Amino acid sequence: MTGTEAPSYAQALAAARSLLFVPGHRADRFTKAAAAGADGVIVDLEDAVAPDGKDAARDDVALWLAGGARAVVRINAHGTEWFEADLAMAAAHGAPVMLPKAEDPAVLTSIACRTGGRSPVLALIETAAGVENAAALCRAPNLVRAAFGNIDLAAQLGVDPDDHQALAYARSRVVCASAAARLAPPLDGVTADLSADGPLPSDVAHARRLGFAGKLCIHPRQLDAVHEGFTPSAAEQDWARRVLAAGEAVTVVDGQMVDRPVLERARRILSAGGG
Fold first, then answer.
1. What's the CA gap between 100 and 131, in Å, rounded?
2. What residues form DSSP beta bridges with 72?
3. How far is it, in rounded angstroms, from Cα 63 to Cα 67?
């Protein structure tokens, strides 16, 4: 990726409905993941890679990026022995980075300074400290978007990661922090159940109701349901067009008052729907 491409890629990440993880030690899967139809790919150097494979995986990712591939790199967490080398590699290729276990805004500020702004950052908020610091994290420089890590947070809290109620506070805090910082709505965490009749559709619907606008995915078969769930329906887009067609003055559409906040919602719906 060249320096001139970075801003447009940051915009694409801000609008993404899906980001698909691919293990950093599986170079044979990189190109397949990129062609799977996700809005973006995250090459994972953290949880997916065993400690004794970290260096080799980093080299494989660097080689792939050097060939012109475009992907987010989930680096290892700040304070680990691999953090510095991971960050340097991503920055050398102008690749966006996902920072796991984001807790300290100063770390995000340091990443922005050390990469010279070449690597847009996604903050993965997946600890209790990260949730409580969400507002400050979302105001960090060069942060393009926040993402919610339900699996790690649930483990720390001692709750079921599939329990919507148990994690509702944390999810809503990340959504509100993103909005307060004028970031794009955040990405929800993964659904680990890959079965055909699993909870993915209800997970997507729940996340969207809370204000998320996309989701982290772990398998290509999840993409269709995620894209459908985070794309406004035809009925929603029709309503939005009729609201905007009514003009800027306060009026009534479908028996409901339309004022500035309603107009803004209509614009967001059409933007998300590609209209």
1. 13
2. 42
3. 7
Residues 170 and 148: their CA atoms lie apart, in Å, by 9
Q: Half-sphere exposure of 137 toward its Cβ, with a 13 Å CA cutoff?
A: 30
What residues pair up with 262 in beta bridges, in sequence order?
none
- CA dihedral of residues 230, 47, 88, 121 (deg, nearest 10): 20
**CATH of range 3-230; options 2.60.40.10, 3.40.50.20, 3.40.50.720, 3.20.20.60:** 3.20.20.60
Are β-strands 256-258 and 251-253 bridged in parallel, bridged antiparallel, or unpaired?
antiparallel
Digitized pLDDT (tens) for each residue of the chain, 275 residues in all: 334 444 478 899 999 999 999 999 999 999 999 999 999 999 999 999 999 999 999 999 999 999 999 999 999 999 999 999 999 999 999 999 999 999 999 999 999 999 988 899 999 999 999 999 999 999 999 999 999 999 999 999 999 999 999 999 999 999 999 999 999 999 999 999 999 899 999 999 999 999 999 999 999 999 999 999 998 766 665 656 666 666 665 565 566 666 566 666 666 665 676 65
DSSP tag of 41: E
Domain map (residue ranges) of the chain: 3-230, 232-275
Amino acid symbol at 157: L
The CA-CA-CA angle for residues 179, 225, 189, to 5°, reads 45
- DSSP structure string for 137-169: HHTSTTEEEEEE-HHHHHHHHTS-TT-TTTTHH
Amino acid 13 reads L
Burial pattern 159-170, b for ≥16 Cβ within 10 A else e, equals eebbebebbeeb
pTM assigned to the model: 0.86
Q: Residue 116 belongs to what H/E stretch?
A: none
